[in-house]
Amino acid sequence: MVAEVFKYPFDLAKVRLQAxxxxxxxxGVVRFSGPMDCLMQTWKQEGVQGLYRVRLLLSLxxxxx
Length: 65
Prior knowledge:
Helix 1 (2-22) packs across helix 2. The protein has two helices and no strands. Helix content is 75%, strand content 0%.
């Protein structure tokens, strides 16, 4: 459980960075410059909920938190 607390935000950053490569913006500007930039922008724009939102939902559907 403790490992998930630290691992999940980095998985989130990885997925967002991969998604940005698959669906580039129309202006060609890259949204994130790297994993730490992705985490910092997510923290600033969405707060801690943005870093753990999906993980919490998956835990609830799986039957445990």
